[in-house]
Amino acid sequence: MPELPEVEVVRRGLSAWIPRREVEAVEVLDDRSLRRHAAGRDAFVRQLTGTRMGEPQRRGKYLWIPLTRPNGGDQDGALVVHLGMSGQMLVDTTGTTDQPHLRIRLLLSSPPEPHHRPDDVTPLGELRFVDQRIFGGLYLDRLIAAPDGAPELIPSTVAHIARDPLDPRFSLDAFHTRLRRRTSELKRALLDQSLISGIGNIYADEALWRARLHYRRRTETINRTESARLIDAVEDVMTQALAEGGTSFDSLYVNVNGASGYFDRSLQVYGRAGQPCRRCAEQGRETLIRREKFMNRSSAFCPVCQPTPRALRSSPRDSMGKI
DNA sequence: AGTGACTCCTGCCCGC
DNA sequence: TGCGGGCAGGAGTCAC
């Protein structure tokens, strides 16, 4: 599932190809992928057609492409993309057969002379939104000033999303202060995109394992050292995933399959219930990764490396088998 | 404010 | 083999 690293791979792929191209035509094959565009399909097509695309931006799992009108300045707007569970943005320049779950197709012009890249020999191309489960979607939004006073512009519907750990303006101090003010559980907080963004179920579990913190620790008990350890772990796991995800696309074809490669090799807890904890094994202990139900999804963790908070020890959660 | 329930959706995997 | 149920999950909304 696309979390921050996978979305960043997509952003980089788009950045190499779409800036300065114009949207010549829009074809919507499935209206459900426009669920979040309140004005409806016809308005989406009308408003998007004829715009020129800028440099793709990202915050957390949200991606957007700033748009301008070449013939006269409209207000600042953007095409916002959320990949949801299974969304892909694919660049096609060779007339590839439509993918089974192709939902929206944008026909793009070549970038204008004289500034197009010398290696960019493809005059026309398509940008395709493919999405099996239709949890993702596209919509148009206006750009507003970032709420924290930074100079950047951000879609109005993304303004409530917190800065992500790879954002240069991300602040550990601010995160720690806000985390401590909460009265909740740690993983719940990590998944709250208005506190810290870009983290989903998989990287939450991976980062908690790396930081040796139990997912149900009370947020108000997390000390400064633990916060720093946690953020370091989040940054490390995302940076590593990003590096490995970078192998799944080339300069023209943006293959958004963040799952390939990384998932098999580098995950330590997610999908490993019942298998040995590798950190424990290094120290000569045999501990099995556990999986429990939490927030209507699953949580995987090492019961030894990530000690259960004292208050919870007498009432273990539902185990989800495999152990 | 925090939390649970519900919704959106498809495909896969399981048991019968 | 075929069918039905359960599961997976990001995020918005609503009720308590």
Q: Roughly how many Å is the radius of gyration? A: 21 Å
Assign an overall shape: elongated
The portion of residues assigned to helices is: 10-25%
Q: Uncertain spans, ≥5 residues at pLDDT below 50?
A: 246-259
Average pLDDT reading:
86
Strand content: 15-25%
The biggest sheet amounts to: 6 strands, antiparallel
- The number of strands is 12
Structural class: alpha+beta
Task: Give the helices and strands as they follow along the chain.
Answer: HEHEEEEEEEEEHHHHHHEE
- Terminal residue distance: 25 Å
What is the count of helical runs?
8
Structure in words:
By secondary structure, the protein is α+β, with helices and mostly antiparallel strands. The protein contains eight helices and twelve strands. The strands form three sheets. Strands 2, 3, 4, 5, 9 and 10 form a six-stranded antiparallel sheet that branches. A four-stranded antiparallel sheet has the order 1-7-8-6, covered by helices on one side. A two-stranded antiparallel sheet has the order 11-12. Strand 3 and strand 4 (62-68) form a beta hairpin. Helix 5 (201-211) crosses helix 6. The longest helix is centred in the last third of the chain and has 22 residues, at 224-245. The two termini are 25 Å apart. The relative contact order is 0.14. The structure holds a DNA duplex (16 and 16 nucleotides).
